[in-house]
Amino acid sequence: MTAASSAAAVPPLAARAASVGASPVREILALTARPEVISFAGGLPAPELFDGAGMAAAFRAVLDEQSAAALQYSTTEGSPALRAATADRVTKRGLATDADDLLITTGSQQGLTLLAAALLEPGDVVLVEDPCYLAALQVFGFAGARVIAVPCDDEGPDPAAFDALVARERPKLFYSVPTFQNPTGRTMTAERRRAVADVAVRRGLWIVEDDPYGELRYEGEHVPWISSYEDAADRTVLLSSYSKIMAPGLRIGWLRAPHALLRACVIAKQASDLHTPTVNQLAAARYLADRDLDAHLAVVRAAYGERRDAMLAGLADALPSGSTWNRPEGGMFLWVRLPDGHDATALLPKVVEHDVAYVPGAPFFAGTPDAASLRLCFVTSAPDEIREGLTRLGRALRG
User: Fold this and answer.
1) CB of 159 within 8 A of CB of 192?
2) Percent of the chain at pLDDT above 90?
3) Structure pTM?
4) Can you tell me the distance from the alpha carbon of 158 to that of 298, in angstroms, rounded to the nearest whole number?
């Protein structure tokens, strides 16, 4: 008997590593990385609209004036300057917030992971919108949660169905992207937000409100955060990020929560990565101090609104007769449903052959998937490129 044949088997991966699949969005992005492909698949901000000069100046100032601090370890909670600047922005948007209410995270994605570590035991129930942000489904799956979808319409979760699910399943939390949701682009109405908060207060569960897109509004009126309702303040968590409004490469997000939960997330972050990169935090704080982020956002919103309109104008010619789609008031995505009998996942390889891409909707569903649905991102490409991409999509779907 050889040494190799007598060796013991390598221990297996954890069950959760086998049960939670890779992100189809990330895999599609890898398949469509060719420069000739016009991709409506990713959730990528337009790089030509980044304020590269402003960010470069912020990094230079930090490294010239604070290099010892910028290159050193830092506190887990985050840079005091960045937390204070972030608290000021949140307060101005309608939710009184102090720096001590916030934890700086490595992207808002990490905020979800920290919340899962702090709140969820294996087998706990998590309620999500139907459909739901895909990476949230991954996070909750890795935590061993049982994820159940809440029926939704164009205004958000169905209140009666939500109440009945909470009563029956006794979930630990409800996760939502209420404003310009990923993947659908829809916005939950104020009435539905109030109904969700009422159920949380009456029946006892956490509300995790994810808001990465709220500052990308092109029309309509701001809808207050669920977190702003005083009676639900002890059970609401607000997540957001600088990824969509400053630069995703910084990987800076933030989490606002009641202090006991915030402390638990700090401890979870200590065990995860100690702290978000110091130099990035200080550069972001310097950028907020030296530049006018709101003026920059006005330019971004104008460009993105034009791109949304270009996509909306071309959909009727690109999609099969009987297709439906929505008109989001902001954000980055719109949601398409092809006629019954179409399978967006099965159609994708043929579409990619025509050098255009989208994301099938099926992976975003925690419950029964809608095979005919798909998500289109309208912000990454300029209007002329959007029009060409839709022309290619139309040829592919007619072929």
Assistant:
1) yes
2) 90
3) 0.94
4) 34
